[in-house]
Amino acid sequence: MNVEKGYVDEPIEEGIDLREEILRLKKERNAIIMAHFYQREEIQQLADHIGDSLALAQMAAKTDAPVIVLCGVHFMGETAKILSPEKTVIVPDLSAGCSLADSCPADEFEKYVNEHPGHTVISYVNTSAAVKAVTDIVVTSSNAKEIVGSLPEDEKIIFGPDRNLGNYINSITGREMLLWDGACHVHEKFSIEKLLDLKKEHGNAKILVHPECPKPIRLVADKVGSTQALLNFAVEDNSQEFIVCTESGILFEMQRRCPEKTFIPAPPEDGTCACNECEYMKLITLEKLYNSLKFMAPTIEVDKDIAERAVRPIQRMLDISRELGIIK
Ligand code: 13P
Ligand code: SF4
């Protein structure tokens, strides 16, 4: 079996129905397929569960299935493996990385932490296991505000790696957390000029913004929130039109849940396409998913020592989120 490219690169039998075969293999392997909202439509359609980063972590901690196929990016697979070390965790293409996680190399982050003693270290889930290992509490965009808010007001905090999410939390909580200077290339790419032009064309549309976007974009938002929070808002709000400033994969579930409403993807600055896609998320295809189940590869492995240290801040996030009523 050839996995040199990060995925199983083996020929697929001609004429097979990939969807049917994936479902058959899934049953045979006793596997569960989880997918993030930014995955391709055909992957979301096949998944047993779709969700945001928090939901995926929670499901990975809860599931009885011995095999988890995580259709998302590498750090999501790592988080699942850290929470369920006894399970086989497969990410169908291990080269599905994350520019935000990459903007925070573990050795540099650890040095920064050591240079600022007396600080509680909060890391966004979009980080490597090695960064989580030097973290006190992990957060996602679904719980960051509440978890930071639950800490004593005078607690000194380092927040990494997303400067935009960190800046947003500082602005709404009045905290002065020290921010790591990282960002996601997808969410930084939105253009405020194009967004305002779009708003002129669609005067009644509400603007939905992920907190990984920079401040000028957040300032014109009707709702800032995680992918799940934006989805909930779209479902519950009376408006008929929404301009969506996050990776365009979320539009699939928004449209599925609200077939009568209109969702317009906000365009990126470079203007070459009408929507903004994460090329890492889109690396997972039906072919790779099929081969990953057929060959049970590539699996996620996490160094034992790192995993033992990284599980504590992830577990702490889940415990606090439960205490605060964010998850059940
Ligand atoms: P959420 O799904 O937690 O909102 O995160 C978005 C993201 O960038 C995942 O990579
Ligand atoms: Fe990472 Fe950004 Fe892609 Fe999310 S959208 S996986 S933060 S690069």
What Rg, in angstroms, do the CA atoms define?
20 Å
Distinct small molecules? 1,3-dihydroxyacetonephosphate, iron/sulfur cluster
Beta-strand share of residues: 5-15%
Sheet having the most strands: 4 strands, parallel
| Helical/strand content category | alpha/beta
| Helical residue percent band | 40-55%
Give the CA-based shape: globular
Average pLDDT, to the nearest integer?
Answer: 96
- Give the end-to-end Cα distance, rounded to a whole number of Å: 41 Å
Low-confidence parts: none
In total, the number of strands is: 12
The number of helices is 15
Provide keyphrases for this structure.
binds iron/sulfur cluster; 328 residues; 4-stranded parallel β-sheet; 41% helix; 15 helices; binds 1,3-dihydroxyacetonephosphate; alpha/beta
Task: Give an account of the 3D structure.
This protein has helices at 18-29, 41-46, 53-62, 74-83, 99-102, 106-115, 129-132, 144-149, 163-173, 192-201, 215-219, 227-236, 250-257, 286-295, 304-323; strands at residues 31-36, 49-51, 67-71, 88-90, 120-124, 137-139, 157-160, 178-179, 206-209, 223-224, 241-245, 262-265. It has 328 residues and is an alpha/beta fold. Helix 1 runs parallel beside helix 14 and helix 3 packs parallel to helix 4. The N and C termini lie far apart (41 Å). The structure holds 1,3-dihydroxyacetonephosphate and iron/sulfur cluster. Residues 73, 98-100, 126, 184-186, 247, 278, 280-281 line the site of iron/sulfur cluster.
